[in-house]
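User: Hi! I have a protein structure encoded as tokens and I'd like to know what sequence might fold into it. I'm fairly new to this, so please keep things simple.
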């Protein structure tokens, strides 16, 4: 290698850009591989953000050698910085075309993936994985990523499962990760027992996997026949199996503090956005009394939207946590001297539960994210109400102490400018349309049996089923088989794919006379959306928090009778509502008004109830500290 070139390269790497540029220019006439000089000169301009010059030099290098992969990539970097996204992606693809090196192609391709993911261009992401698969057809990692994408974006569970089976025995595959993704696809098709087996296989291969274990716990809640004590025991095992080595709770020195001073409330979530958690959390952010409650928001998600900005506007302190280690998250919360930390994720995607095991706040509360006890000894309270968790019924299903709010544990953010109300569909159709909307994992043979009984009791009725899983032939096939076993012909089922756009989603409820709830995992967000659109909901209440959310919502609405206490009552209530189309039409035209004026949409009142609860647990904590009852810790407070 030319010594003068190496000297110039040394200058470049040392950041002495002007000297490097002069050295390269002197080399132009004497160095044979001029394309390298032109490319490196382009880098000097790129690092000084002189994009026009950088592009000129990269283009000059490519005039000498159009197959120069490095120059194509560098050219893409300039275009990406200028937000010329499609041109940048084209340059990255050209760089990959010019190289047979798989490592290089995956490195450059990752830039394509990140840009497309940032823009939510899922079809183009699938094309990207297909491109890599064509280039390197025997690479199991590429196939694995392709399968994950098509099941996550297109809900193509059958296709994904076929790929997972194909690569299972490849020695390059990380099986614990494969089995977790495999379980996601099986759950998407409603095959919960098979999904659970795959999750258990994953955890047997790699026991310390907090995210996989959280998936495992959350998915247990869909199954109707599992023992409540066993489910709680599985949750308790999280703390003993998934804690980060060396986790030691913080000590909090709060003795003698003023019980009436303003409190710092920390909210921890990956869902400060348009999301089923966001629509229930936003009213609290909007209505907290800033004189008494200072909001610290800890956001664990790189994605943001207009809702994220709403949350930011109401937080005194906003901290982006994405990618942070749980230890660092706990340390930040502790150093912020948060008085009460409210976890809004539970065992859902993006959670940071390992951070809660450090006990970074003296009081820790679970709300919204998990419809069950977290099972963690470091979490003190679970927010609910006396309908979802009546005294004497569910306490033994929780590690936490229950905080029962007045009226409801939920407060919904109504949709802005929703579609206008229409008459109940049966008025024009001449038949009743029942609705099932939501996660296909909530479907199970037991409830399909009840839905079928209702369909048989209501002549000519139809059932409109909307779910992401209706994209997948396997899920559709399984659904029709479950109804067929109950004597319901496929002609009476209307299968629709999920609609993400809010207006179209809400319009879907206008096609339903009655929405039927799931069991044991009741709906919450979908139930509230239906009610805002005037569609009555019939629910079945059980003996657990997750199976009483429907009853809680309908009680707060003023229609507790729509939540049956028995399977027979569920059928009879549905049939009764359908029997009087005139009355059903009156409900459709009045229900939105009732919903909007109910406690479910009264953000100020709900937040006052929540603040009273926060103040009470804070005073209880200070009393326990003063009495020496509360024993924390072993980790000295940072000085």
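Assistant: Happy to help. Inverse folding works backwards from shape to sequence: for each of the 639 positions I chose a residue that suits the local structure. Here it is:
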């Amino acid at each position: 290698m030319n010594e003068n070139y190496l000297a110039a390269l040394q200058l470049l790497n040392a950041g002495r850009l002007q000297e490097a540029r002069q050295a390269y220019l002197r080399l132009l006439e004497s160095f044979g591989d001029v394309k390298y000089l032109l490319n490196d000169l382009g880098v000097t301009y790129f690092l000084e953000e002189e994009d026009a010059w950088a592009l000129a030099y990269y283009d000059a290098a490519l005039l000498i050698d159009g197959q120069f992969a490095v120059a194509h990539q560098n050219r893409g970097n300039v275009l990406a910085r200028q937000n010329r996204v499609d041109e940048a992606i084209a340059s990255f693809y050209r760089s990959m075309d010019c190289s047979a090196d798989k490592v290089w192609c995956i490195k450059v391709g990752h830039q394509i993936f990140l840009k497309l993911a940032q823009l939510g261009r899922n079809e183009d992401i699938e094309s990207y994985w297909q491109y890599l698969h064509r280039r390197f057809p025997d690479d199991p990692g590429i196939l694995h990523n392709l399968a994950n994408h098509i099941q996550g974006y297109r809900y193509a569970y059958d296709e994904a499962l076929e790929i997972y089976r194909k690569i299972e025995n490849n020695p390059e595959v990380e099986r614990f990760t494969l089995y977790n993704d495999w379980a996601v696809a099986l759950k998407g098709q409603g095959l919960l027992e098979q999904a659970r087996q795959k999750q258990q296989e994953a955890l047997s291969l790699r026991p310390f996997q907090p995210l996989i274990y959280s998936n495992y716990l959350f998915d247990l809640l869909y199954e109707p026949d599992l023992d409540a004590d066993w489910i709680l025991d599985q949750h308790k095992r999280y703390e003993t199996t998934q804690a980060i080595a060396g986790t030691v709770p913080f000590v909090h020195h709060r003795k003698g503090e003023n019980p009436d001073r303003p409190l710092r409330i920390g909210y921890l979530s990956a869902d400060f956005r348009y999301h089923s958690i966001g629509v229930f959390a936003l009213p609290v952010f909007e209505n907290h009394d800033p004189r008494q409650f200072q909001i610290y928001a800890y956001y664990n998600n790189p994605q943001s939207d207009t809702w994220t900005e709403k949350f930011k506007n109401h937080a005194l302190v906003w901290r982006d946590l994405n990618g942070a280690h749980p230890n660092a998250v706990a340390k930040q919360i502790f150093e912020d001297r948060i008085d009460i930390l409210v976890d809004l994720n539970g065992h859902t995607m993006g959670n940071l539960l390992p951070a809660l095991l450090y006990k970074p706040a003296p009081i820790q509360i679970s709300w919204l994210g998990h419809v069950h006890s977290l099972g963690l000894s470091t979490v003190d309270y679970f927010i609910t109400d006396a309908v979802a968790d009546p005294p004497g019924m569910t306490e033994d299903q929780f590690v936490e102490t229950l905080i029962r709010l007045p009226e409801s544990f939920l407060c919904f953010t109504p949709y802005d400018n929703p579609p206008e109300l229409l008459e109940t569909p049966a008025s024009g159709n001449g038949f009743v349309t029942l609705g099932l909307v939501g996660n296909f994992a909530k479907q199970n043979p037991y409830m399909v049996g009840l839905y079928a009984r209702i369909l048989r009791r209501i002549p000519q009725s139809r059932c409109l089923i909307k779910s992401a899983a209706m994209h997948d032939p396997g899920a559709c096939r399984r659904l029709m088989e479950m109804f067929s076993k109950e004597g319901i012909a496929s002609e009476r089922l209307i299968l629709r794919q999920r609609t993400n756009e809010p207006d179209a989603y809400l319009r879907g409820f206008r096609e339903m006379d009655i929405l039927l709830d799931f069991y044991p995992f009741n709906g919450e967000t979908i139930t509230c959306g239906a009610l805002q659109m005037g569609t009555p909901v019939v629910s079945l209440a059980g003996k657990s928090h997750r199976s009483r959310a429907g009853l809680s919502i309908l009680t707060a609405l003023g229609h507790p009778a729509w939540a049956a206490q028995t399977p027979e009552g569920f059928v009879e209530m549905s049939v009764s509502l359908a029997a009087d189309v005139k009355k059903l039409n009156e409900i459709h035209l009045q229900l939105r008004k009732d919903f909007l004026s109910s406690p479910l949409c009264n953000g100020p009142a709900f937040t006052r109830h929540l603040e009273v609860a926060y103040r009470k647990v804070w005073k209880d904590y200070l009393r326990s500290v003063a009495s020496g009852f509360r024993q924390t810790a072993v980790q000295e407070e940072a000085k």
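A useful reference point when you look it over: The CA atoms of residues 28 and 34 lie 6 Å apart. Feel free to ask if any position seems puzzling.
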